[in-house]
Amino acid sequence: MELSTLILITITACICLYYFILGKLSHFKRLKIPHVRPIPLLGNLGPFIFRRLSLPENLQKIYDLFPHVKYFGFYDFMAPVYVIRDPEIITTIAIKNFDNFCDHPDLFEKNEPLISGNLFSVKGDHWREMRKLLSPTFSSGKIKIMFQLMCECAENLTDFLVNDSGNIGKTYDMKDVLSKYGNDVVATCAFGISVNSFKHPNNEFLLLAKEASTFSSNSLKVLINKHFPLFARFLRLKLFSSRVRSFFKEIIADTVKTRDEQKIIRPDMLHLMMEQRDKTDGVMIDIDEMTTHSFVFLIAGYDSTSTAMCFLAHEIGINFDIQNKLRAEIDDVLIRTNGKPTYEAISQMKYLDAVINESLRLYPLAPFLDRVCVKDFELPPATPDGEPITLKPGDNIWFPSYALQRDPKNYSHPNKFDPDRFLNGEVDNSLYMPFGIGPRICIANRFAMIKLKIMAFYLLWRCDLEPDTKTRIPMVLNKKSFIMMPEGGFWLKLRARKSKAPVTLID
User: Fold this and answer.
1) CA 97 from centre of chain
2) In the prediction, which pLDDT does 505 show?
3) Is-contact 283 275, C-beta < 8 A?
4) Given this model, what pLDDT does residue 282 score?
5) Cβ–Cβ < 8 Å for 473, 499
6) Is the peptide bond before 474 cis (omega within 30 degrees of 0)?
7) What is the pLDDT of residue 418?
8) Opening angle at CA 47, ends 42 and 53, nearest 5
9) Given this model, what pLDDT does residue 503 score?
């Protein structure tokens, strides 16, 4: 090929690529929808990619630029996303017209078989069948049965902290401590494996769970797999190592075999899936799907829920008035239950409920919720002088939970940690969505809440929490992590509780 021909082809290819990108990034301009001018290829993610802002703060900054619109445009790399900030439209999309937006966008399943087909990612009728199958795992009755198992894990946690810190006190990275508790709860409640990660910190289950969860802190790897799956496949850029895949597939296979042979029945997710496996009608499920659902439950329990626990512990640790008020409620329960807290007693603690809800408001598990359009749907105009927009199948929608839950229009003094707002009826449920909203709400939200309650209950029952020199006040969010994390970690000083907890039963 002549040099001139090669140059011509290269120039032509570059021009085509330029106009392709330009076309992609002019979507909202054509529709006259408010948006921030995107950067080629990076869209509106530039501040996050270049580590100037965390991901939730990046979205919040643009959210704050358009205080009077119903929705605005955002470019997730080159993919246009409609970011909804009007509560009525959020309710319409997530609940009233759920059938038009019943799916999540594809994430990593093209490159990662270990999480392919999990409940978050499956779509349409298959999602409905799997949701119906797995929902009984997280009923109040099943959670009540698991309650004692979670309490035993909390006892292991506080036994370690009391003995290790003593009366002098010791500073801990709470993520390390509470991840062990989260790991042990999931191991016993989902996998039927009894693990004490405080006595045996090098147990294989914990080490592999820790390795598996590191993918969420590697924002570059996550983004390449999500947005450029072919490129990720070419680079063999896997989210999980072959060792992690093999371990969790083997552990599920061995557990299923043992339960089959010994006729073991446990009130957990795995047992429900084994029952479905043996049926001849309904959704079919095999060992690979069992592994997928159990593994995703592990990641959520070890990483996401433990992170929520860390934010909760941080706010309790730096707000002594709230800590004292919460401890008074805990002491009241200890008196009424003679030092043996029950599922009903902890479930009905109103102030504990409010403290956890306020922590989840400030630090939602996901900074935004996503949906993908599956049927044509007409959005009202974004602005008073705008035109309605018809969404087409494949169009992406975000609900910016972090920004909505820190908007002064929705919450008075939004950056203040104030549990009382959940006691006086100030909160609009359509503007509070830490576990999602509508039929796609997190299937394990009640399980996560009781897990958080038990941790906080036992921690304050037996320990005093206070800030350390390493504790950052106010907290600064990490600019590298794909999920919400603080810069420098979660550091608190803990010591054995100075005041004796009451355990005498009142006549």
Assistant:
1) 24
2) 44
3) no
4) 64
5) no
6) yes
7) 97
8) 145
9) 62
What DSSP line would sit under 223-237, residue for residue?
Answer: HHHHH-HHHHHHHT-
Are 421 and 358 in contact, with CB atoms under 8 Å apart?
yes
Q: In 3D, which of 189, 202, 210 has the Cα closest to residue 143?
A: 189
* Rounded-to-integer distance, Cα 481 and Cα 396, Å: 23
Angle between the N-to-C axes of helices 305-318 and 320-336, in degrees from 0 to 180, rounded to the nearest 10: 110
- Selection from 362, 353, 313 nearest residue 493 by Cα: 313
Closest CA to 370 of 293, 433, 308: 433
Q: Give CA–CA dist 253/446, Å, rounded.
A: 28
- Kindly report the CA angle at 405 between 398 and 62, in degrees rounded to 5? 55
pTM equals: 0.91
The Cα–Cα gap between 507 and 182 comes to 37
Nearest in space to 184 (alpha carbons), one of 228, 142, 154: 154
User: Using an 8 Å Cβ cutoff, are 367 and 55 in contact?
Assistant: yes
Each residue's pLDDT tens digit, 214-235: 766 666 677 777 767 777 777 7
Which pairing describes strands 463-466 and 491-496: parallel, antiparallel, or unpaired? Answer: antiparallel
Q: Is 345 left (phi over 0), alpha (psi -120 to 50) or beta?
A: alpha
Mind listing the pLDDT tens digit for each residue in 265-297?
Answer: 877 778 878 877 777 566 677 888 888 888 888
Q: Which residue has the tokens 């993520």?
A: 175
Q: Distances in Å between the alpha carbon of 238 and those of 205, 334, 410, 498?
A: 20, 48, 40, 48
Rounded Cα gap, residues 136 and 115, in angstroms: 21
For residues 247 and 208, is the Cβ–Cβ distance under 8 A?
A: yes
DSSP-assigned beta bridge partners for residue 71: 84
* Residue ranges, the chain, pLDDT below 50: 8, 16, 18-19, 504-507
The Cα angle at residue 432 between residues 431 and 437, in degrees rounded to 5 = 95
